[in-house]
Amino acid sequence: MLFIAPPLFGGGWGEASAQVLQRGKASFYAKKFHGRKTASGERMHPDSMTCAHKSYPFGTMLKVYNPANGRSVIVRVTDRGPFIRGRIIDLSWSAAKQLGIIGQGVATVFVSKANTFVVPFLPSDEIEIPELELETNDGAPALHPFWKDMKEDQLKAQQKPQQKVQQKPQQKVPAKTPPKGKK
């Protein structure tokens, strides 16, 4: 029986087929493991988006897709396991909740390595932007910004005090003249 997996996260068929895609069972850590050390040395936290995988290096970001409901998450590898036949990944409680597998406990998922550089809504082709000719009517009061008048008024007000300082005549000190009665 041949099974073709749908592309993950909106990627094309070529992108999904170029990556290694694993299919298998996923389980999740119980909340009782909160605070225990993982194989990488980090502490397990139920709200973190982490997982355990047998072969991917620590720190690798993985996409986990649940085909039953179409949900997917991105998790980081921090532990080794699972060590139960048929299971390929153990998820943190929060990641399992987002995938919708808390109620059933174990679900069939697809796992692939996540792209580290994901740019949402990046156009694939160059878009040609047309040149626009914009004209304004300087005479219309609504099109003339009021702040230009304010700026001109402020500049004039700043120049007036400077001109007054420059135009102010210097007062000459009168020379001492001898009193009129004495010669």
List the helices and strands and how they pair.
Elements: H1 13-18, E1 21-28, E2 50-53, E3 61-66, E4 71-79, E5 87-91, H2 93-99, E6 107-113, H3 146-167
Parallel strand pairs: 1-5, 2-4
Antiparallel strand pairs: 1-6, 2-5, 3-4, 3-6
Give a quick summary of the entry.
This protein has 183 residues and is an alpha/beta fold. The chain has three helices and six strands. The protein has a six-stranded mixed beta barrel.
Describe the structure.
The chain has helices at residues 13-18, 93-99, 146-167, and strands at residues 21-28, 50-53, 61-66, 71-79, 87-91, 107-113. Strands 1-5-2-4-3-6 form a six-stranded mixed beta barrel. A hairpin with a 4-residue loop joins strand 3 (61-66) and strand 4. The chain is built from three helices and six strands; from the N terminus they run H-E-E-E-E-E-H-E-H. With 183 residues, it is α/β, with parallel strands linked by helices. The longest helix has 22 residues, at 146-167. Residues 1-18 have low confidence and may be disordered.
- Overall form: elongated
The gyration radius over C-alpha positions equals 38 Å
Output the number of helix runs.
Answer: 3
Summed over residues and divided by their number, the pLDDT gives a mean of: 78
Across the major sheet, the strand order is 1-5-2-4-3-6
- Percent of residues in β-strands: 15-25%
Largest sheet: 6 strands, mixed, barrel
Structural class designation = alpha/beta
Element string (H = helix, E = strand): HEEEEEHEH
Low-confidence stretches: 1-18
Estimated helix fraction: 10-25%
First CA to last CA: what distance? Answer: 136 Å
Tell me how many strands there are: 6
